[in-house]
Amino acid sequence: LGNNSFREMCDREKDTNVRLSLPAVCVVWQTAMIILFGVFIRYDHESDAHWVEHRKHLNLTDIENDFYFRYPSFQDVHVMIFVGFGFLMTFLKRYSFGGVGFNFLIAAFGIQWALLMQGWFHSLDYTDGKIKIGIENLINADFCVAGCLIAYGALLGKVSPVQLMVLTLFGITLFAVEEFIILSLIHARDAGGSMVIHTFGAYYGLSISWMLYRPNLHQSSRLQGSVYHSDVFAMIGTLFLWMFWPSFNSAICDHGDGQHRAAINTYLCLASTVLTTVAISSLFQKHGKLDMVHIQNSTLAGGVAAGTAAEFMLMPYGCLIVGFCCGVISTLGYIFLTPFMEKRLKIQDTCGIHNLHAMPGVIGGIVGAVTAASASVEVYGHEGLVNTFDFEGKFKDMVPTTQGGHQAAGLCVALCFGIGGGIIVGAILRLPIWGDPADDDCFDDETYWEVPEEEEEVSSSFICLGFVLFSYQTNDAVIAFCCSRLYCIQSPLDGSTAQFWDYSHILM
């Protein structure tokens, strides 16, 4: 009886007006961040003004500051978080604002809370009670946020911005705890986050989606698909993620051979995944045509699976095998598992994160455990074995076979935190106080955004259907994505129309 009453309360008529709740949450929580940062956060020795004295005392040069080693990787990871994930979520025909905009909101709040939560576990200076942050903390904060953005993928179009803020608050907290348990207590290695980021984030989001199951979601089915231009924008996100994933997996590896090897391993896994994704997509589609959903998502699965073993001696051919398997499994997941999960398991996975992050994350954890357990002095060398697996301090007597068991334990912890935490947070988000949309209003930007008119008709019947320019500047080059103007002219005589493209403004 109590359970039925709870369900009835949660399923009552929806009110999507967040005029008071969203500003209140944003302002109050940002104020709390300001206060907490004032109390706890300080610069570390490499970003503090006393670095000059520290440098002279240790006879160092400015180029040995960690900033110059880590910032290029931080820049790539930052672009992945805000551009890659954001644009990947623009595939829905009427939810591009929500995909990019709410991604921005989650990330901006999440990195602040992550600096605090991870700082309390990893960077707290017990001499003065302050958290000392530097460039590596910023990278780890981005990693922490990635878990929440992955979870958002399962809920895309079905939740309010207030719910997303709550999801991020709890998600960052859970992430920081499970990361500390896996990396510090269990002593598992997970440079690219197959377990800590992808497995946790995916099952966290899937569990929340299960708790927020909408039996009448078919009422919004007209908006659940994509259109040509939305798929193109999503593909831009895919390409940014694909290009920068080697930086993601190698960003916090030890300088030298570990970081170098992580980039190579990820690079090869990703390349192999593309070919098998194309093969399986063509094989299971009528007339051998490719499905853009598979190309946008499954081509990234190799990067996810390479994460845990990124800095291990996986060997180039081993990377190609991992990528090969992930392309097959991820694409088959989109074809068979996603419909099964929605119909039988009551899990509505908008972006298919189970196929892109969950399964490849588990594969990555297993690959990491097997690779660690099979490590040997002949392959790594004694110093290489100690350095790669951090066999120092209280872990100096650990052997590779034991390390493999610890890796497997780390995967189990990630699964438990993701599923358990998701169920608890899902129950909280189901309360009817967050302004979530009704079943027939899902996947529509108009619920939470001021949406401009799609077409602006001019008296001459000359209509510009769209112009978009996006550019990303690196130290070496400017990459510009430009969709030309598509014009439609309507004849005043018979009403017929003609279309043409204007390429005159494309940037070179």
From TrEMBL:
Keywords per UniProt: Ammonia transport, Cell membrane, Glycoprotein, Membrane, Transmembrane, Transmembrane helix, Transport
Single annotated GO MF: ammonium channel activity
Listed Pfam families: Ammonium_transp
Transmembrane segments: 20-41, 77-95, 101-121, 162-183, 195-213, 233-252, 264-284, 314-337, 358-377, 408-429
GO biological process, one term: ammonium homeostasis
Subcellular location as annotated: Cell membrane
GO cellular component: plasma membrane
Primary location class: membrane
Membrane topology: Multi-pass membrane protein
InterPro entries tied to this protein: Ammonium/urea_transptr, NH4_transpt_AmtB-like_dom, RhesusRHD
Residue ranges of every copy of the Ammonium transporter AmtB-like domain listed in the record: 61-436
Role description: Functions as an ammonia transporter. May play a role in the elimination of ammonia in the gill.
UniProt record similarity statement: Belongs to the ammonium transporter (TC 2.A.49) family. Rh subfamily.
Official protein name in the record: Rh family, C glycoprotein b
